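--- STAGE predict ---
source: upstream dedup step, 1 unique chain passed
mode: sequence only
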Amino acid sequence: MFRARFRERVRTVSGGEVAGILVAVFWAILVSFLAVALARLAQTLKATTKLVADVTDQAVPLLADASAAVRSAQTQIDRVDAIASDVQEVTSNASALSTTVASTFGGPLVKVAAFGYGVRRAIGGRKENVPAKEPRRTVIVGRTVPAARKRSNRGKKD
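--- STAGE serialize ---
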């Protein structure tokens, strides 16, 4: 009798039902993994949002400081530009003054120097008993190089 009741209660499971149970378990596992992944993604998005807010809070004062520094640099560049133009003007004035002085005093000074050289040469001329100096020669590894030639006074204007 016990066996008869047991047989009545035992029921066989078909292949479709087994497949349905497997699919339900698979979907339950898949949904669990997706829930965990979404929870981690939500945490990452919260951390990213906080990081962006912190960076924004720090970047705004830095941008203001950078803007002030750029304005200050522009002011300094304008000052340097004004100084450079003044220096250029002074340089051109000094060049003009130098040209004027050279043209005014240069010619007479050259003439005085030439006259002094001629007087010195005339006073210190050669003595009759002293032989003329031999031209100086330079020795280069077994060779003798002749001394520099004297300049001639041809073609010079007084």
